[in-house]
From TrEMBL:
It comes from Nocardioides plantarum. Keywords: Signal. This is Secreted protein. It comes from the Bacteria. Residues 1-23 form the signal peptide. Residues 28-50 are annotated as: Disordered.
Length: 130
């Protein structure tokens, strides 16, 4: 019986491993959340997840198409703002405007603070390779 349970647990772990690789936690001083890729193409992705504001300021997600051997492409804003201190659903899509030869290797996000009349501050990038 114990052997059967171990085999079942190992099988479940292997089955869930690919799904775990498609999710990433993202944070900055102003907000935090998580995103997961729902679909992707050669140079684009769509994602969904959650986001909350740590400070009550407006925050949003910036999307990044990630290349291993090429300059990453930033899509800027891919989600609406939130000021909620509770997690709300946020996500969007990011696509390279002018196609380039290499295929993308993954998705990336930053949590950014929306500051009227000033450059928006963003946290460090989180990458999610597919």
């Amino acid at each position: 019986m114990k052997k059967l349970l171990r085999v079942a647990a190992l099988t479940l772990g292997v089955a869930l491993a690919p799904a775990a690789a498609y999710a990433g936690n993202v944070s900055s001083n102003d907000g935090n959340g998580s995103q997961r890729v729902t679909s992707h193409g050669d140079q684009s992705f769509s994602s969904t997840g959650n986001l909350r504001s740590n400070t009550g300021n407006k925050v949003y997600y910036r999307g990044i198409v990630v290349y291993n051997n090429y300059t990453d492409y930033t899509c800027d804003r891919i989600s609406d703002n939130t000021t909620s201190s509770s997690y709300v659903t946020r996500g969007g899509s990011c696509s390279q405007v002018v196609p380039i030869p290499p295929s993308a290797d993954g998705a990336g996000w930053k949590v950014c603070r929306d500051r009227t009349g000033l450059p928006d501050g963003c946290g460090s990038q989180d990458n999610d390779y597919w």
